[in-house]
Amino acid sequence: MNRAAARPKRRGAQGGNPTTSPKKAGNAARKSRIAVVEDHPFFRQEVVTLINRQADLTCCGEADSIAGTLPVVAEKQPDGVVLDLRLKNGEAFDLIGSLKPQFPEVATLVLSDK
To answer: Which of 12, 46, 54, 104 has its CA 20 to 30 A from that of 33?
Structure first.
């Protein structure tokens, strides 16, 4: 009996294909699209640069305010949004309260300097 045939195949953590993650199973080249919301231009650009340096991420849109975020998310359809905790015109939690009912599939990540 062949030893390799006797061993069960290893499956990924999600029980999917052992060589690809469930997210990439249908489209190996797809990058996760991320929108960035930061009111300070320097920090916003740094976050965008960090995202774009990742092989599996791309920044698809930017906003500098709560009011500017909803149109960006509606137009760009990101997979996730990176938010500054404190924006000049409110807090990220206020924005999340507006985002989630309209775009429940969009993940959120809140950044803080505290």
So the answer is: 12
pLDDT tens for residues 20-41? Answer: 344 445 556 799 999 999 999 9
Helix (H, G, I), strand (E, B) or coil at 58: strand
Q: Please, is 110 exposed, middle or buried when counting C-beta atoms within 10 Å of its C-beta (0-12, 13-18, 19+)?
A: middle
Task: Measure the N-to-C terminal CA separation of the chain; round to a whole number of Å.
Answer: 61
10 Å CB burial of residue 37 (0-12, 13-18, 19+) is buried
Tokens of 67: 């009011």
Can you read off the two tokens belonging to residue 77?
């359809």
Domains of the chain, first to last: 30-111 (3.40.50.2300)
